[in-house]
Amino acid sequence: MGRWSGVLKVPLFPGSRSHYSVATSLCVSNSSQKPIAPSMNAIFFNGDRVRGTGNPVIEKLSDLEAIAEIIVSKLGENCNVWVIEASKFNGPFAVYRDFIPSVNKWGEPDSYDPTGDPASTSTVSLLSSCLKEVRNTLPSRHEEPCGSESPGSCFSQPKTLLFGFSKGGTVLNQLVTELAFSEIKSNTVYSQHETNIIPTSKESLLNSISEIHYVDVGLNSSGAYITDQNVIERVSKRISERTLGIRFVLHGTPRQWKDSMRVWVGKEKDTMVNLLDVESRKSGGKLSYCERFYFGDKLANMQMHFEVIEKMDVS
């Protein structure tokens, strides 16, 4: 098994005016050079832009390809990685309006509304556009028999791991809300001729989510974390109805969790942890969570905010 890596510029939908930069690192067959099914898809939503700092750590960890390489190094060669940058920016501020229609001009959400499932629909469409572009880029060779090199099964859905860095966490909140109000269907069995590389519907995406990593998320307004008890309760109920469990991991630094000018960020994190704790105790092991604090012995700074991408423990 080999890998194909690159940065794509793709439309959200065919003919769409919204184009996204996506750093992609995929499992490919050594013989056919075609994408093959992974054991998992890791989808990373990036945050605001920070440029011109002159700090080599921040510059490196602002690069989409570098982030993709880091995620592969943490999860192993059997994963596909997709690092997504917002299609619109207001100055340095990422605006994920296709995923969260309620965001203001700074990319801050007014609310998380599951109506229409915009985040899951957009994610599936964007991955499909990326995979199509990769297939058009790779040389045409003979097709690989199903399962000959695939690290995952051709007959089951690869797991999905979600990562949201900084403002990218707002997309996670929208996806969690959509999961909470979704109808969980039984796992689909795929035909022998279908190579299941990515989720092909919003239902298959939501039903395949096994881990959700909040990576030093924070906003200049409320809404960095899920604080709605009903949403977490509904997620727990949905997870109880399916085979696959789910794990929430909250990674943080003093830059966000201890910011005296934005005390609500830490309070929202604590509220979400408390809600997850209650549901984890009732879930019989189907829902779990942990919080991990990095650079706790240092004063808050911008470098640690980015450096947590490299330091985070995903085990």
Give me the secondary-structure topology.
Elements: E1 2-11, E2 19-28, E3 40-45, H1 56-60, H2 64-75, E4 79-84, E5 88-90, E6 93-95, H3 118-137, E7 159-165, H4 169-180, H5 202-208, E8 209-215, H6 229-240, E9 246-252, H7 254-257, H8 263-282, E10 287-293, H9 302-311
Parallel strand pairs: 3-4, 3-7, 7-8, 8-9, 9-10
Antiparallel strand pairs: 1-2, 2-4, 5-6
Helix pairs in contact: 3-5, 4-6, 6-8
What does this structure look like?
- The protein has a single domain, classed as Rossmann fold (3-Layer(aba) Sandwich), CATH 3.40.50.
- The strands form 2 sheets. An 8-stranded mixed sheet has the order 1-2-4-3-7-8-9-10, with helices on both faces. A two-stranded antiparallel sheet has the order 5-6.
- The chain is 32% helix and 21% strand.
- It has helices at residues 56-60, 64-75, 118-137, 169-180, 202-208, 229-240, 254-257, 263-282, 302-311; strands at residues 2-11, 19-28, 40-45, 79-84, 88-90, 93-95, 159-165, 209-215, 246-252, 287-293.
- Helix 3 (118-137) crosses helix 5, helix 4 packs across helix 6 (229-240) and helix 6 (229-240) runs parallel beside helix 8.
- Mean pLDDT is 92; it is low at 187-194.
- The protein is globular and about 55 Å long.
- With 315 residues, it is α/β, with parallel strands linked by helices.
- It contains 9 helices and 10 strands.
- Helix 6 (229-240) links the parallel strand 8 (209-215) and strand 9.
- InterPro entries: C2orf69_mit.
In angstroms, what is the radius of gyration?
Answer: 19 Å
In helices, the fraction of residues equals 25-40%
CATH architecture: 3-Layer(aba) Sandwich
What average pLDDT do the residues reach? Answer: 92
CATH topology: Rossmann fold
The largest beta-sheet arranges its strands as: 1-2-4-3-7-8-9-10
Major sheet attributes:
8 strands, mixed
The number of helical segments is 9
Shape: globular
- What CATH first level would be assigned? Alpha Beta
Tell me how many strands there are: 10
Number of spatially distinct domains? 1
Q: Outline the low-pLDDT stretches.
A: 187-194
* H-E order: EEEHHEEEHEHHEHEHHEH
Q: In angstroms, what separates the terminal alpha carbons?
A: 24 Å
Indicate the proportion of strand residues.
Answer: 15-25%
Please identify the structural class as seen in this structure.
alpha/beta
